[in-house]
Amino acid sequence: MNTNFYRHSCILLAGGEGKRMGSETPKQYIDVLGRTIIGRTLQTIQRWSSLDSFVIVADESYRELLDKQVPGSISVAEYAFLGYVSPGSSRQLSIKNAMEAIQDQMAEDAVVMVHDAVRSEVSRELFDRCDVMIGAGDGVMPYLEMKDTVYKCQDIRSEVDRQDGIILQDNINTKEVTDKETTTEEATNPIAKRLVGNIDRNTIVAGQTPEFYDYWKYLAAFQKISDSNLARIQGSTQLAVEAGMDIRLVPGEESNFKITTKENLVRYKKVIEERLLSYEGVGSTPNK
User: Fold this and answer.
1) For the whole model, what pTM was predicted?
2) Contact indicator for 138, 240 with CB cutoff of 8 Å
3) Does residue 9 have a pLDDT over 70?
4) In angstroms, how far is CA 114 from the centroid of its own chain?
5) Three-state DSSP class for 185?
């Protein structure tokens, strides 16, 4: 392993297709008041002084756009741009591609930071909290406490067609939901789910990025699991936990929300508008 290369590298995940947004343009490339969301996120990342390198997971069709965003958003003289990596069929496979792509450039004590391209509002203080805490374990995840009542439910859409009296399929899936979680499909199908019980919300948290990991231990976790098994992993940190890594938690930030829906985008535009207005109010040049 190399002892002279990068110690704090960021994997910026920008390979999503934006299906939940319902937009032809993936959410990270949507222009908001003169700058794409990923462009703003790149600006945010460069404000963390300990960062020394980054890699972007992005589809080839958007790299020409990103080539214009990177130089204007982050100083390549101060932060080494390690290039682009093709996205995988899932979040975890995208991270694996990036982890393997930068392997030869990581220091022996390297820390890797996984961050969503659609979280531009993370503070420098949160970066610092994560960096300090990783010294106590193998990884760090910011979190928010659950405020809503949390329930367990069953998906019963394919259980029985009671109207026709025909049993279609006995396929009931149990998952956890909050009392505010509803999709358009479920709203038009009131028998889509059945409530089966409560969950102690004190034992549940909502995860955020940036997530920090001991690079070499996290890479080893990817190398020990097949791609087919990796496909069942949902969150970035689940793999680390299953691999036995000691993952610590630090308080996250309400302002560090992920832009995945149209409602999130409306909220985000208001945040940017208020910021630009505040710059104008003090006579400063707004940093779009």
Assistant:
1) 0.82
2) yes
3) yes
4) 7
5) helix
